[in-house]
Design goal:
CATH topology: Pantoate--beta-alanine Ligase, Chain: A,domain 2
Helix content: 40-55%
Number of helices: 1
Strand content: 25-35%
Structural class: alpha+beta
Number of domains: 1
Radius of gyration: 29 Å
Largest sheet: 4 strands, antiparallel
C-alpha cells in the first residue's frame, strides 16, 4: 500500500529568511521614527523660542518711546537665552529698530539654533 505523503509546513531556511525580511523592515521604520521624533522636538523648541521672542517684542511695543534703549539679556528659562538689542535712529531718524534673538540648545549666544524677530518703532 502506497500513500502519497506531502511534506507540508515551512522549512527552517524559509522561516529564517522571513524573519530577516521582517527585521529589515522594522529597522527601516525605526530609523524613520527617530527622524520624526527629532523633527518634532526641534519644532517644539523653535515654537517656544518664537513665543518668547514675540512676548518680549510686545513688551517693547507697550513701552514709552523714550524708555526703549540699550541691550537686554533675559533668561526666561534655563533652556533658552533671550537677547534684545535696540538701535536708535535706524533705519531713519526718530525710529528705533528692536532685534530680539532667542537661542536654544545650548542656551547661549553661540548656539546655532536661533529665532530672530525685528521691528521698527516710530516716535
Amino acid at each position: 500500500m502506497t500513500s502519497s505523503h506531502k511534506d507540508e509546513g515551512f522549512s527552517l531556511i524559509e522561516i529564517m529568511i522571513s524573519i530577516a525580511i521582517i527585521a529589515i523592515g522594522l529597522f527601516a521604520v525605526m530609523s524613520v521614527l527617530i527622524v520624526v521624533i527629532k523633527g518634532n522636538t526641534h519644532s517644539s523648541k523653535s515654537t517656544t523660542a518664537m513665543t518668547l521672542a514675540q512676548d518680549k517684542l510686545e513688551d517693547f511695543r507697550n513701552m514709552d518711546y523714550d524708555d526703549i534703549a540699550g541691550t537686554y539679556t533675559v533668561y526666561n528659562n534655563p533652556d533658552y537665552y533671550l537677547q534684545a538689542t535696540v538701535d536708535t535712529d535706524t533705519p531713519v531718524a526718530n525710529t528705533k529698530t528692536v532685534t530680539i534673538n532667542v537661542y536654544w540648545n545650548p542656551a547661549t549666544s553661540t548656539s546655532v539654533h536661533k529665532v530672530q524677530l525685528n521691528t521698527i518703532i516710530a516716535q
